[in-house]
Amino acid sequence: MTSKQPPSTDKTTPKPPKSQNASTSSNDANKAVKGAKPNKPKPQSRAYSPDSRPAPKSKHQRPASPPTSTLHPRNPHQGRYDFEVLTKAFPDLAQYTITNPSGEPTVNFSDAKAVMTLNKALLAHHYGVKLWELPEGYLCPPIPGRADYIHQVADLLNAQPVHDSNDAPASGQRVHVLDIGMGASCIYPIIGSQSYGWRFTGTDIDPVSVNTAKLICQANPNLKDLIKIKLQDNPKHIFEGVIGPDDYFDLTVCNPPFHASLEEAMAANATKEAKLEKNRIRRGQSTQAIPTAKNNLNFGGQQSELWTKGGEVAFITQMIKESKKFAQQVGWFTTLVSKSENLKNLAELAENSGARKVTVLNMKHGQKMTRILAWRFALKG
What's the rounded mean pLDDT across residues 43-70? Predict the structure, then answer.
């Protein structure tokens, strides 16, 4: 049967005990005050807090509690971006930093160059990647969400359920991960290798993506010994031609092409751009000189990155069918599933294909909900 993981790993923050009212006589109250120690409120857990500083006090308002993060507790991208720290790591970010109506630093997320520069700063600060360039028109991924995938699937390597950030999963080069369709950004291998020290093999059917990923790894000494890049020569196959007879992978990861056609992908891009435009107007930001979706890396992506015939259902269906052939060479097979309505049938397909365990990992980043389908054939003793 399919086992679903709870959609959130957040813990309930304990509330301080309520103060007791002295409803007895004044003498009894005085005795109580003299003999009792004052109640101290229990400390609030900051395991999921993006900011450990105390909230400002007010004479008229109760201090606001720090917002509860929806990201994995080990994800370093909690809360708002620290632009001071990021700019120190990558000074070019300063020229794209603007101030929102609340007086907080941000960037224009509809500006392709601003998004690319923010990503470079995040990679430089959190992952030690100093050189990271993408060809024009290739997908520029949102790093916090990609990092969440890596931290979620890392928990699958633990023998026991993970409860908090102290339950560290397996790490080091003994863990080998296969990335299906890594893209030019090589983002999953970068995050996984630098977060846990894992070895990665990244594959793609696009020669430009393969060459770009190789250049990124060669230009960064902390990547080149941990990441191997392979071209999938046959676009009709996923694992065949990539997993050799002597290979073993603890995990596979995949961000599949979600859309079934170019028109569907363009419509999704237009919807996303319209939503950003609406948010800019609501926040009082300028909408002049903003690139269109066609030239915007925030909406970028090649055909192999965005769409395939039959969409994600066809792609993941083929992945599940092929995975059975490599049941003894992979620990956990995993993939993102963009549309929730596709999840049930895909999970049932994995079960019917002989998977011994099928599970769903739910992720939430802001208002965006995504999920990871994971299955395995061999169970460890």
Answer: 40
> Cα–Cα distance between 104 and 161 in angstroms, integer?
38
d(CA 370, CA 339): 8
pLDDT value at residue 258: 60
SS3 assignment, position 334: strand
Mean pLDDT for all residues in the chain:
78
Helix (H, G, I), strand (E, B) or coil at 218: helix
What are the distances in angstroms from CA 58 to CA 55, 64, 66?
Answer: 10, 10, 15
User: Would you say 307 and 262 are in contact if contact means Cβ atoms under 8 Å apart?
Assistant: yes
Global pTM? 0.73
Check whether 18 has a pLDDT greater than 60: no
Residues 6+ apart with CB under 8 A from 216: 129, 131, 132, 133, 186, 190, 223
Q: What is the pLDDT of residues 60-94, one digit of tens each?
A: 333 444 445 689 999 999 999 999 999 999 999 99
Radius of gyration (C-alpha) of the chain in whole angstroms: 24
Q: Report the alpha-carbon distance of residue 28 to residue 42 in Å, rounded.
A: 27
C-alpha 65/C-alpha 62 separation (Å) is 9
Q: How far apart are CA 185 and CA 297, in angstroms?
A: 12
Beta strands, E only, 9-137: 98-99, 105-106
For residue 292, the 8-state DSSP code is P
Long-range pairs for 90-98 at CB < 8 Å and ≥24 separation?
90/117, 90/120, 90/121, 90/124, 90/125, 92/117, 92/120, 92/121, 93/117, 93/118, 93/120, 93/121, 98/285
Q: Is the dihedral of CA 144, 150, 155, 158 positive or negative?
A: negative
